[in-house]
């Protein structure tokens, strides 16, 4: 006798296929768009349009900052998305800025030029790999080392600014060399950089905050190359300010093992 709750077996000879696991479209669309921004910037640099190359990197930054947040807000996080995001970051914020800097000014330095470009690219790879394995032990309020999008913004922002003011690349070759090394090596330090993870997108904010955001957008539009580069120079130096401030007060400067909370960094490879 068959129990009414017994699972029916398929007829003999009938093959039952398991439902294949898919991927989430929405967050991965943002990741692909960010990847395209990095690819576009490389192509523009090869064509001598360094202003558009810089814009491509900044566009990738905006899109990359959204994919992880969109995934969490729509509850569509996945291991595939995290790996995809990390690979996209390596192209957009590792290879692209290094190649743009080399093509714009560093190739005039010969072997020193490509060494500087490679150091930046290698440090970006090390930064992303370290982030992937340290997400469970790093204080979520801070990044361990300069985030790769901010490092890319320093390099691309400088090129955009110099191009906008028609400064010849060979006049600032060594400045580009020093900036590439600074951005690259700062990515792999233990210097803490504020992550802005305390900002909750789902929570309501006072009306004044929206007004300030509107004013910020207006200020950026006054002269985007100058304002954006200035913002990321300040941010790129802020980590060392926090580091030495903590040291002077006798506080722990490293971000490793300072928080017992699980950091919400999935999909935000910085």
What distinguishing features does this structure have?
single chain, Four Helix Bundle (Hemerythrin (Met), subunit A), 270 residues, mainly alpha, 63% helix, two-stranded antiparallel sheet
* Total beta strands: 2
Q: Find the CATH topology.
A: Four Helix Bundle (Hemerythrin (Met), subunit A)
Strand order of the largest sheet: 1-2
What is the tally of helical segments? 8
Order of helices and strands: HHHHEHHEHH
User: Biggest sheet, open or closed, and with what strands and sense?
Assistant: 2 strands, antiparallel
- CATH architecture assignment name: Up-down Bundle
Structure characterization notes:
With 270 residues, the chain is mainly α. It has a single domain (25-248), classed as CDP-alcohol phosphotransferase transmembrane (TM) domain (Four Helix Bundle (Hemerythrin (Met), subunit A), Up-down Bundle). It is built from 8 helices and 2 strands, in the order ααααβααβαα. The chain has helices spanning 25-46, 50-73, 79-104, 111-134, 148-164, 173-187, 207-222, 224-248; strands at residues 142-144, 192-194. It has a two-stranded antiparallel ribbon. The radius of gyration is 22 Å and the shape is globular. The N and C termini lie far apart (62 Å). Mean pLDDT is 84; it is low at 257-270.
Short précis:
The protein has 270 residues and is mostly helical. It has 8 helices and 2 strands. The chain has a two-stranded antiparallel ribbon.
Protein topology:
Blueprint: H1 25-46, H2 50-73, H3 79-104, H4 111-134, E1 142-144, H5 148-164, H6 173-187, E2 192-194, H7 207-222, H8 224-248
Antiparallel strand pairs: 1-2
């Amino acid at each position: 006798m068959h129990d009414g709750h017994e699972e029916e077996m398929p007829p003999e000879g009938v093959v039952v296929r398991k439902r294949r696991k898919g991927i989430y479209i929405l967050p991965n669309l943002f990741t692909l768009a960010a990847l395209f921004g990095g690819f576009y910037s490389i192509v523009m640099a090869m064509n001598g349009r360094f202003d558009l190359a810089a814009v491509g990197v900044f566009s990738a930054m905006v899109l990359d900052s959204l994919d992880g947040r969109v995934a969490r807000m729509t509850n569509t996080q996945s291991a595939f998305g995290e790996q995809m995001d990390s690979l996209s970051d390596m192209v957009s914020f590792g290879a692209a800025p290094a190649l743009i800097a080399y093509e714009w000014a560093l190739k005039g330095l010969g072997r020193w030029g490509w060494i500087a470009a490679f150091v930046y690219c290698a440090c970006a790879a090390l930064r992303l790999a370290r982030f992937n394995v340290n997400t469970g032990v790093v204080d979520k309020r801070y990044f361990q080392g300069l985030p790769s999008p901010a490092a890319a913004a320093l390099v691309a922002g400088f090129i955009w600014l110099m191009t906008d003011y028609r400064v010849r690349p060979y006049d600032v070759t060594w400045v580009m060399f020093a900036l590439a090394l600074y951005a690259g090596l700062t990515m792999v330090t233990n210097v803490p950089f504020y992550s802005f993870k305390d900002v909750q997108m789902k929570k309501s904010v006072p009306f004044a905050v929206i007004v300030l955001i509107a004013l910020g957008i207006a200020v950026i539009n006054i002269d985007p190359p100058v304002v954006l580069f200035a913002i990321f120079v300040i941010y790129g130096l802020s980590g060392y300010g926090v580091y030495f401030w903590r040291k002077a007060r006798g506080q722990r400067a490293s971000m490793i093992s300072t928080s017992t909370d699980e950091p919400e960094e999935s999909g935000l490879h910085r």
